[in-house]
Amino acid sequence: MGSTFKMKKNIIFYDGYCVVCSRFIKFLIKIDKDKMYSFANISSQVSTKILGERMKGQDIGKFIILYTDHEIYKKSDAVIKIFTGFGGAFTILNILKIFPKVLRDFIYDSFAKYRYRLFGKYDKCDVPSKEIVDRFIYD
């Protein structure tokens, strides 16, 4: 089974039913050689515990969230922060911040709105393989 909430301070909350989201997480795991990030399904109890007191309930589950150093990053800010956290060539993605957050989040929201129609949805939450299960938080 996955590890407990105390595993890491950098937690990425994602929609485990979303095909795109699940593939994105698998991609992050491949490039995250230092195991900087842990992952939790947005519908998990740990999500409710951490995000429930920091966000509006109706917002939880609508977008990717990075919880790090007691800060919450959402949508485009989360994606930029996740990639730039790897350092190296990924820091070039900071250039995306020249675009207004409103524009970046509009593009993010437009894609997110149609992700199920375009790429599908799992009938049940995607289960990680035993090689990477320790990167996930279940609670």
Topology record:
Layout (H helix, E strand, L loop, with lengths): L10 E4 L4 H13 L6 E4 L3 H7 L13 E4 L2 E4 H10 L16 H19 L20
Parallel strand pairs: 1-2
Antiparallel strand pairs: 1-3, 3-4
So what's the overall shape? globular
Unreliable stretches (pLDDT < 50, length at least 5) are: 1-5
Strand tally is: 4
What order do the strands of the largest sheet run in, or round the barrel if closed? 2-1-3-4
Q: What are the secondary-structure elements, in order, as H or E? A: EHEHEEHH
Query: If classified by CATH, what would the architecture be?
Result: 3-Layer(aba) Sandwich
Largest sheet: 4 strands, mixed
Number of domains: 1
Helical/strand content category: alpha+beta
Q: Quick check: average pLDDT?
A: 84
